[in-house]
From TrEMBL:
Name this protein carries in UniProt: Vitamin K epoxide reductase domain-containing protein
Chain ranges passing through the membrane: 9-28, 34-53, 86-108, 114-135, 144-166, 186-206, 218-239, 259-282, 308-328, 334-354
Organism: Candidatus Roizmanbacteria bacterium GW2011_GWA2_32_13
Primary location class: membrane
GO CC entries: membrane
Domain Vitamin K epoxide reductase: 31-166
Domain of life: Bacteria
Gene Ontology molecular function, alphabetical: oxidoreductase activity; quinone binding
One Pfam family linked to the record: VKOR
Membrane topology classification: Multi-pass membrane protein
Length: 364
């Protein structure tokens, strides 16, 4: 993994840190759990803004492993608001959110209702601004910055979870359950369809034991549909949880599905950020001794092959496990997690079998 830059590990740490607060919302009392969730998301967002600030301060390049131009995004005319760089606004916003919700957690009696209302309006503004920045990246700059996407994701999460403080919002959310379920199902259609298509095409492209640039772009394009589906699922999942927290916090299929979806998100991000940039360089068959001598990077790139199959198997099997949870009757969480572990073990064993079979196809 020496090809992977250290900042990528920071990226995944902040991603996991920002989203891990969800489980506090399940374990602890409803209001307290939501406050902790928001606090964790704010810490993750602050870390992203701080990293971008330090990178720009030291005039370093913000490398984007997915092939986009992060520097074009963070140095564009959309990188400032009221003449101030967005990383400063980001650090200020996330720090304010964190401190505010820490106060709400430990000394809620000191916080007047008007402060809470103002806080919700503040998060609503940040949510709308995040959507604006996403629009600018997608349709104006036509470049994506994975750090900006992570910050936008955490900002959107903070907004959605903050709705739990509004009685009217909860009432509305419970009344649009059918629409939320429809979005949830549509997300799974995109996600499952995308994951299955990527798997099918990946093995089809490997008939010649090589992935070329055009094939890689095809896989990336379909993966974008999968990510769109995952976004729909998470948004509907969180909204559904806010409206039915008391019920879903005790629902084993819902909790098992959420865990599987987190695994999907992390493993898919690993595939996209760590493995995809090297996919055309990874050797999918053994080379002769002479070829190994000529290709100095053979051993290094070969070391990525097994982790690639492993991560892909985890992502694919997790997609289907999460999908099945939509239709499963109530079981204990322990039973479902044991079943999930067994499915992952079978998927990993199958992946290693196919990896070995493919690599030995034309072994010399």
């Amino acid at each position: 993994m020496r090809f992977v830059q250290a900042n990528i590990f920071l990226y995944f740490f902040l991603l996991v840190l920002g989203m891990s607060g969800f489980f506090f919302a399940v374990i602890w009392s409803q209001t307290m759990g939501f406050y902790i969730f928001i606090s964790f998301a704010a810490i993750g967002g602050f870390g992203v803004a701080l990293y971008i600030y330090r990178t720009k301060k030291h005039r370093k390049e913000l490398v984007c492993p997915i092939g986009s131009d992060c520097n074009a995004v963070i140095n564009s005319r959309y990188s400032k608001f009221l003449g101030v760089s967005l990383e400063y606004w980001g650090m200020f916003y996330y720090a304010l959110i964190f401190l505010s919700y820490i106060i709400l957690i430990f000394v809620p009696h000191l916080v007047p209702k008007i402060f809470l209302s103002g806080l919700i309006m503040f998060t609503s503004g940040a949510f709308l601004f995040s959507l604006y920045l996403l629009f600018a990246q997608a349709f104006i700059l036509k470049q994506w910055c994975i750090w900006c996407l992570l910050s936008a994701t955490l900002s959107i999460v903070i907004f959605i979870i903050s709705l739990a403080n509004i009685d009217f919002a909860i009432t509305v959310l419970t009344e649009i359950t059918v629409a939320i379920k429809a979005v949830h199902s549509f997300g799974f259609a995109l996600g499952i369809g995308g994951a299955t298509s990527v798997l099918f095409l990946f093995f089809r492209f490997l008939r010649d034991l090589d992935i070329n640039k055009d094939e890689l772009q095809t896989l990336k394009g379909i993966s974008e549909l999968m990510w769109l589906g995952l976004a729909f699922i998470f948004v509907s999942q969180f909204i559904d949880f806010i409206g039915n927290a008391d019920i879903l916090a005790r629902s084993a299929p819902f909790l098992a599905q959420t865990i599987a979806l987190f695994i999907v998100a992390i493993s898919s991000a690993v595939l996209m950020i760590i493995f995809a940039p090297f996919l055309i360089a990874i050797p999918f068959s053994e080379l002769s001794r002479n070829e190994k001598t000529i290709d100095n990077h053979y051993s290094s790139f070969k070391s990525l092959r097994k982790p690639l199959f492993l991560t892909g198997a985890i992502a694919f099997s997790s997609w289907y496990f999460a999908f099945i949870m939509n239709y499963l009757e109530e079981y204990s969480l322990i039973v479902l997690l044991l079943a999930y572990s067994a499915i992952l073990a079978i998927a990993v064993a199958t992946a290693f079998f196919w990896e070995k079979r493919i690599s030995n196809k034309v072994a010399k």
